Amino acid sequence: MVRKNQEWPSEGELIVATVYKVLGYGAYANLEEYEGKEAFIHISEVSSGWVKNIRDHVRENQKIVARVLRVKPKQGHVDASLKRIREDQRTKKIQQWKVEQKAEKFLELSAKTLDKDLNTAYDEVGYKLMHIFGDIYGAFESAADDGESVLIEEGIAEDWAKTIAKVAKKNITPPEVHITGYVDIQTFDSDGVNIIKKALKAAEGENVEVQCVGAPRYRITVKSTDYIQAEKDLKEAAESCIKIIEKSSGNGTFLRELE
Q1: ∠241-242-244 over CA atoms, to 5°?
Q2: Fewest 10 Å CB contacts: which of 41, 112, 124, 212?
């Protein structure tokens, strides 16, 4: 179960829950992010249209996304609604919850490395990471990018910081960016064909690809996990190409494709 760093959800909050009982007047569901808490969805909050049979809309063991209407600690549940959510909000919440589940697995893996259980992990670092980074996955993403130092600077114990960073780097792959630019190159040298080939070869690299769009224009595409580095590589590739052309008394220009 993914856990929050608060005991109850807030009014208006979107929650993920699993339905465990459906009755003629409503449904009961266990909250996935608040241990030991449940939600009640009255039949009038199941659908915006007339509900003839509630089981046409909800069923036992179904995962649902609902909006909290009222929090009732004394009764031990929250009143929630299925109809007061847009489809895009429902989709976004489910995706967020899945990411949080993944983050909890990472936290549990880190705990096992230190011979500790998940409950201890939450008590020692989990809730603190939520407070500092917004959620646990955000903490693992930061550790994947910047290493344990970003955690230690925030007061996370060194053994936890090193273990989390190791798990993060192994399991989180930075998103790959693709950026594109063009070079227009011309040379009037008698050996022009070979000079063009040499110039284009100079632009190529491990993450740099050059394609002909239609002479004199050539496309340069750079792939990287670092946008700033990708921009730098694209500029350097274009400059290397144009430099060779200009040495042959030719000319060249670089055009950055707008995103």
Answers
A1: 75
A2: 212
Task: From 35, 32, 13, select the one nearest 79 (Cα to Cα).
Answer: 13
Give me the residue label for tokens 């046409």. 56
Other Cβ atoms closer than 10 A to 118: 18
Q: Rounded to whole angstroms, how far apart are CA atoms 109 and 129?
A: 16
User: Assign residue 88 a region: left if phi > 0, alpha if psi is -120 to 50, beta otherwise?
Assistant: alpha
Q: What is the pLDDT of residues 99-142, one digit of tens each?
A: 999 999 999 999 999 999 999 999 999 999 999 999 999 999 99
Task: Kindly tell me the burial class for residue 136, based on how many C-beta atoms sit within 10 Å of its own C-beta (0-12, 13-18, 19 or more).
Answer: buried
Flag whether the pTM goes above 0.90. no
Query: Residue written as tokens 């829950």?
Result: 17
Tokens representing 178 are 């693709």
Q: Side-chain half-sphere of 211: how many Cα atoms within 13 Å?
A: 7
Structure tokens at 221: 């595409």
> Can you give the pLDDT at residue 257?
75
pLDDT at 98: 93
More confident residue, 193 or 225: 193
Inter-residue contact 62 to 52 (CB < 8 Å): no
Angle at 228 between CA 226 and CA 229, to 5 degrees: 65
The per-residue pLDDT for 259 is: 56
Provide the pLDDT for residue 2: 79
Helix (H) / strand (E) element for 178: namely strand 177-186
- Cβ-in-10-Å burial (0-12, 13-18, 19+) of 207 comes to middle
Is residue 11 within 8 Å of residue 71, measured between CB atoms? yes
Total count of residues recorded for the chain = 259
